[in-house]
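Name: EchA10
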Amino acid sequence: MSHDADAADAEGSVTARRDGAILRLTLDRPQRRNSLTPLMIETLVRALTEAAADDALRAIHLRGADEDFCAGADWVATNSGSAQRPRTGDLVRRIPHAAHRLIELVQTIQLPVVCTVRGWAVGMGCNLALAADFTVAADDAVFWEPFIERGFSPDSGASWLLPRLVGLARARRMLLLSEKVSGSDAADWGMIHQAAGAAELDDSVEQLLARLADGPTVALGLAKQALHYGQHASLSQSMTQELFNLELSCRTKDFKEGLEAFRQRRAPTFDGR
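Structure predicted for EchA10:
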């Protein structure tokens, strides 16, 4: 491998490709199981921030290159840039604008995010998959939160995401005992949307993406927002939020199309507006 290739592998990259109304984001560092460097995280944050304001987009697809989804944040790459020890509080200052921002964007962007997982989804890679709206994994994929096994506490939303998806008992197994969970078990636990055999995985994802990209994009985004809001709100607060969202969605072209399709007893054709 050349020096340039070594440098590219050390930095890693994220490939962003428009495919009609779908934005496809690929973690492209397969030699390191697509572990995330600071540059890759920065690229993802920028791509999702831009996607949030792009009226032509209707869904986002997140995947890893080759055989793995993501082996987490690359702490070696993160800490090898300077021989001088960072000053106290470095993580507290830096991470909220990087890894934390990435997880928040996946959770809150008003576009459906579909994640394909094959191979390893570890640490922050696991949490990225959990933050997505729909994660479809290979039956033999491995979800792993190895923080305790490596001597430090969980990060990137693990302690918030896991209990809400699988309950406290199973969250303890993953976070305190570093228990690995297969794709098929993750689906059985309700941790992800679906598990599929290797031959069916891509087709399952594409069918789901097509359905979401053909949906009423504004209403989908507001429903996603309401679900997220409801995780820390009372019933009364959630119903009030639903009313504001309903007021907005009822003003869309897709709402009118939905009503007209119902009257005509046909499938609606939404254009995302």
